Every structure is written in structure tokens, then in C-alpha cells.
């Protein structure tokens, strides 16, 4: 065809496809609106494909346009990863691994994994970011992270997971609270207390699991605070705003002002899983998954 597509034309299309507004897209691209409209029109004529339906001031993607938008987003994401990998090779590194995690994974699991992995793969760059469960799922699909560590019972199709740690819970109390390891019998002793829990949005399945602990003890907790950060929970407990229940792996060796009672005799367990996109082509990921498989047997 006489019209030759260039990389900039694809970026122009993607900007309009995301904004569904030519003026806004033009401003974002720092070009004139008439110029952008002309480029898109030429692109449609050159491809022989209608990409947008234009109705007065309303712009909609055609079926072909929707397809192209999805594929181009994946294309540009892959292109960015290729360029990043080339830069790493230039710097003497073999690659990088982008890791998402919930807070409890950073207490022991991830540090131990990274130390073990680095012994045999010293030229790998790790990028780590604490992200909530659903955020990790979204970013695995968009390939913004290579692997996540989540607390979710169900994983969407297209992703795969392996359990890394199966653990019980710990009760968190102020250091001077009269209940301790010696006189603790069950949670029913604390039915009149206030509780600080992880926000239900953090992981609905995890939240239901914790609520089942209370149900087994025949009371509904008075939940006065919700948060997504363990550090906030510990600070609130320390200052007598309430008690909490957290995964055992979130129990650090020492936190000033609080104490822990392990709930070993309850049936509830919480599973920390590693999850990744089956379409991920990062060669470092395969080696990292092998390390996880060998590491999880030790927990």
C-alpha cells in the first residue's frame, strides 16, 4: 500500500483510542487537533480499515479499532521490555525481574528467595513494589510485573499460581494487655474488644477467612478500624485502639509496644501464593519459579 505506517502513527492511534477524544489526545501528544485527525484518517485509508465511528462530538472505536487498541498496548509494553533488557545487557546485567507483593511476603519469604536466587544469578536486577492483591492481578495482565505474591483463593484464567506458604494466624495485643500466652484460652475471651483488621478490599477471601475465626468463637467482632498496612495495625494496637489478627508471617521478631499470641489450634489457614502470567516471556522468570519450587518445600 502507498501509505506506510510508522511507529508514531500507532502511538497517535493509541492516544485517541484511550481518550476517545481528538482534542484531548492532541494536547497529550503536543500536536494540533487537525494534524492528528489527518494522521488518523490517512492511517485508516492506508490500512483499508475503519478504526473510529465519529458521531458529532462522540468518538467510538469500531470492532477493528478495539482489537488494534488491545494488541498495540501489548506490543508497546513488549517493546519497552525489550529496550529495558537491552539497557541491562549494556550495563553488564543478564536481565531484570519485576516483583509485586503483599506486605507479609516481605517479612521473610521474598528476602530468603532473593538471597538464594542471587547466589546463582548475581547479574539480575530486582524491582520490588508492594501492591494490593487485585492490583497485582491487573499488573500481571498488563505485564507491568513478572510475578506477584498474593493472598487470593481464586486466580483468573490466563494466570498460574503455586502456594509458597501455608500458615495460621496470630493475635496482636498491646504489650500490657492482661491476656497472654499463659491465660489465653480462645478469642471468646475478647468478644467485647475492638478489632483492627485488614480492609476487605485487600482480599475478600482473606477477610472472610478471618471473620470465620470469630464466627467459630460465637461472636461478631466490633471492627473499629480497617487498613492495608501491618505497620498501621501495630501502631494502632500499641496505642490501645484495639486488637488485631494477622498472618503469622507478618509477626516480626520485635515490635515495640505489642505482643503476639499464635493461634495454632484453629482450623483456618491463609495461603501466600506466587502468581504469574502464562504469556510472560521473561527468561529470568523460569529460573525464579524453579527457585520458588525448591524453596517452598522448606517452609
From TrEMBL:
Coiled coil: none annotated. Keywords: DNA-binding, Transcription, Transcription regulation. It comes from Portibacter lacus. Residues 5-62 form the HTH lysR-type domain. This is LysR family transcriptional regulator. The keyword DNA-binding applies. GO terms for cellular component: protein-DNA complex. GO terms for molecular function: DNA binding; DNA-binding transcription factor activity. Belongs to the LysR transcriptional regulatory family. InterPro entries: LysR_HTH_N (IPR000847), LysR_subst-bd (IPR005119), WH-like_DNA-bd_sf (IPR036388), WH_DNA-bd_sf (IPR036390). The keyword Nucleotide-binding does not apply. It holds the Pfam family LysR_substrate.
Amino acid at each position: 500500500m502507498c501509505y506506510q505506517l510508522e511507529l508514531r502513527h500507532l502511538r497517535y492511534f493509541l492516544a485517541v483510542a484511550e481518550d476517545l477524544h481528538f482534542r484531548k489526545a492532541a494536547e497529550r501528544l503536543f500536536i494540533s487537533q487537525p494534524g492528528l485527525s489527518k494522521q488518523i484518517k490517512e492511517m485508516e485509508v492506508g490500512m483499508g480499515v475503519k478504526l473510529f465511528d465519529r458521531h458529532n462530538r462522540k468518538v467510538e472505536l469500531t470492532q477493528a479499532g478495539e482489537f488494534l487498541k488491545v494488541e498495540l498496548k501489548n506490543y508497546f509494553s513488549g517493546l519497552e521490555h525489550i529496550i529495558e533488557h537491552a539497557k541491562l545487557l549494556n550495563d553488564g546485567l543478564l536481565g531484570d525481574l519485576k516483583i509485586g507483593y503483599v506486605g507479609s511476603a516481605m517479612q521473610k519469604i521474598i528476602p530468603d528467595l532473593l538471597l538464594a536466587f542471587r547466589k546463582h544469578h548475581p547479574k539480575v536486577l530486582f524491582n520490588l513494589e508492594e501492591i494490593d492483591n487485585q492490583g497485582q492481578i491487573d499488573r500481571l495482565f498488563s505485564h507491568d510485573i513478572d510475578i506477584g505474591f498474593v493472598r487470593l483463593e481464586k486466580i483468573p484464567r490466563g494466570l498460574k499460581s503455586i502456594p509458597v506458604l501455608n500458615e495460621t494466624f496470630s493475635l496482636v495485643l498491646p504489650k500490657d494487655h492482661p491476656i497472654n500466652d499463659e491465660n489465653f484460652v480462645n478469642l471468646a475471651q475478647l468478644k467485647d474488644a475492638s478489632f483492627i483488621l485488614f480492609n476487605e478490599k485487600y482480599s475478600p477471601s482473606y477477610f472472610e477467612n478471618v471473620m470465620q475465626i470469630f464466627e467459630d468463637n460465637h461472636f461478631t467482632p466490633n471492627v473499629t478500624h480497617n487498613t492495608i498496612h501491618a505497620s498501621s495495625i501495630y501502631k494502632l494496637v500499641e496505642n490501645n485502639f484495639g486488637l488485631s489478627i494477622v498472618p503469622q508471617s507478618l509477626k516480626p521478631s520485635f515490635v515495640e509496644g505489642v505482643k503476639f499470641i499464635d493461634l495454632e489450634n484453629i482450623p483456618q489457614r491463609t495461603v501466600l501464593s506466587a502468581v504469574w502470567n502464562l504469556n510472560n516471556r521473561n527468561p529470568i522468570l523460569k529460573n525464579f519459579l524453579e527457585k520458588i519450587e525448591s524453596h517452598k518445600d522448606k517452609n
